[in-house]
Amino acid sequence: MERGRMSRATSSRPPELPMRVKESNRMSNVYTTPQNKQPSFGKLSIPKPQSVTSDRRTSFFGARTSGASMRRNSTMSGFGGTEKIKDARPLHDKSYVQQCIRQLHEFLTEQGYPGTLSPKTLQSPSTKEFVKMFEFVYRQLDPTFEMPNSKVEEEVPAILKALRYPFVLSKCSMYSVGAPHTWPQALGALMWLIDNAKINWSLSKQELLFSDFCEDSDNIEEGADYNKLFLDYTAETYCKFMQGVDTYEDEDESFLSKLKKLYNVDECLLASMLEKHRILSDEVELLEKESQTDRLMTKRMERMKLQADLKKLQSYRSSQESFKANLENKASELKDDLETTASHLETLKHEQDELQHLLQNQKFTPADVERINREKRELQQTLTGISKSLEDSEQHKWNEEIALAKVNEKAELKVAEYHKLARKLKLIPLSAENACGHDFEIRPFECGPNGMVQHKTQIQMLLRKLVGDVEEENSRLANMSLSLEESCEQLNSNILDKSNDLKQLREQIRKVDERLDSDMQELAQEEQDWAAEIESVDNHRKLLEKKVNYGYDESVQHLKAAQQQYHLVLQETNEERRMVANNLTSVFTTAANHLSITEKCLDDLHSRMQRSCSKAVEEDTAAVQNMQEALKSFKSKATSL
Length: 641
Fold this sequence. Notes:
This protein is an all-alpha fold. Helix content is about 70%, strand content about 0%.
């Protein structure tokens, strides 16, 4: 069965060219695109009923645009290469991207994604969150998969390429996944991976569903007859495919009839199963008509909305509790004012009763009546003034409440700006890089005014400490840079000193060369004098010339060797000079040692030359003396004769 499974697995891969007809017009259930689930040959094919919400799903391949009369080009080039496929999905369409984000969120929540998820974070996730989502989705295909910790930016495109993802996801896009120009391509890759996982699940479910259909039979998809039928069917359909045909109804029917004859399919059993399938599909359609909505999905959406409303209500409740506490404080103050006004009212009533009693027991004169009316008018004026002041106080109270609400809104905006800046500085949450285990988040409604002041002072102390640490680090780095600059200046001064020493050594070498040249000129003059003196003696002159020439040639050879050695030394010193920047101390010590060795060598050569010249002169003088003595003896003999 392994070969049969492999053939089905490879045939379920999506084609690399868009189809020209819709999937609903296809009658063949064999080797189709991933929208139709692939059953095994020789088994009963029961198509899955379409859900109502399936119309909202967007196909991976986009719209089919090719015409029926268009001739199809083969994807195989002359040398086995494939053409580059253009992504037909509208990844730069905002509505399509939002739809893909909703589908990704639904898939992750249904499969139990361990991390925190919200549609807001999926709008522009970080590289770390994208890698976690990719690892979770890929584990639906391979449960043993573990994402490596290093070189994640290279691992994800390599995995997609190994899975034959038809489009290119570059490595550079992995460094900024949440960017607006890279997130749609990464989202498309995740949706393609989710489609593969769903296809894998459907194939595994089909294998479990029809596993007992041929459990007693042998491996029916292996054999020469099956291979011959399958190859004939593939050749016929591919020929029509290259001619521009997308439907293969006749070939499918003939292939299925041959398969039925080959495997002795029971038509009665097949008809009964089709009838059962029709009944079950009718029941499913009836249930879908009754529900018309996906209850589980609606309930989940309602639960998410209720959770969001609950969070809003909790925050509103906390704000209302703080507002209630403020109102209670004001109410207690107003209650005290009311008690004082009530006591004042009681005293006024008591005075009114006394005055009424006096009015009833006394007879008033016109002056008393006028005085009473005047006092009444005054009291009415005071009463209107008090009522007006009460209205003014209530209006002032209302204005203060509005100002307090505005101040609260400004404070919330400032807290949000503070949280945004703290996230940029990696101070929030507790596990952030620069938080150091401290809580820098401000929660204005979780604690009272005193707790808020304490929390504010604590955060200010932590921030001051952090600023002090940063300033201390900056000062340390500045001191380090100053020390490095000082060391660099010291090295530059050392380089100048060494270069001056090198110039002095070169000057000394030049003086030695001049002295050597003058010595050589003196030797040449002396040799000329010696040649003039011994010109009278022919036999001894030739011998002396040979000796002198031999000594001179030898000295010239020594001189040339010394000059060559000097040039080599000069080249080596120049080479060492070019390497000063890499290793100053070693180069200078080597150059100094080399120069000292050169001086010693030159001194040795000079002393050797002097010794050889003095020796030659001594030999020449001895020869001349011998010749003079021989000449004198010859003269004496000649005179005697």
